[in-house]
């Protein structure tokens, strides 16, 4: 919530700083793009599940920050779209991580492997949420990232290298998170785990359903600044 409030604050404040903010904000945009690579790389070495999800949120906000500071209609549209999309995605990941923690009482990735054998339906939710996190079609996340990457490329073509590498690393740590928690052999201490509840499946479905439906009418959120 604080990240999204920060993004809203940037949208409201950035036009007041300079009639041509992309010149004044050049160093900050570069730092935001560099932050995408740094936070994405940090995700690859995390052993704590919730820390991995938190750093993932910061990585996505680097894209949002850069798009807002360029101050174009496409950039603002993409920033708003990605903030809404990632707000639902990140919340779903935290809910799934809490579901794991309530049963295993640990957030260490190496200790919670093989949960697909115990909770096959919950593993499906993990797969769909991670695919959404890496902006796979037809989710609204992809639309937001395409707007932002196009905006940054139009502002400076070399940025496609940084955003491309960031997208690749995002896909890598998303798959890493899924494989580390769901695949492999389950530990003997987790053989007798309480089953999942309907409320947990409903919570996850209520996160992912809007992401699937919004792509059918993206103007509800992407038409705000056009």
TrEMBL record:
Cellular component terms per the entry's GO annotation: mitochondrial membrane
MF term (GO), any: NADH dehydrogenase (ubiquinone) activity
Membrane topology type: Multi-pass membrane protein
Keywords recorded for this protein, A-Z: Electron transport, Membrane, Mitochondrion, NAD, Respiratory chain, Translocase, Transmembrane, Transmembrane helix, Transport, Ubiquinone
Family as reported in the entry's similarity comment: Belongs to the complex I subunit 4 family.
Role of this protein: Core subunit of the mitochondrial membrane respiratory chain NADH dehydrogenase (Complex I) that is believed to belong to the minimal assembly required for catalysis. Complex I functions in the transfer of electrons from NADH to the respiratory chain. The immediate electron acceptor for the enzyme is believed to be ubiquinone.
Name of this chain's protein: NADH-ubiquinone oxidoreductase chain 4
Spans traversing the lipid bilayer: 24-44, 51-70, 76-97, 109-128, 160-181
Domain NADH:quinone oxidoreductase/Mrp antiporter transmembrane: 1-170
Species the sequence originates in: Podarcis tiliguerta (Tyrrhenian wall lizard)
Keyword Nucleotidyltransferase part of the UniProt annotation: no
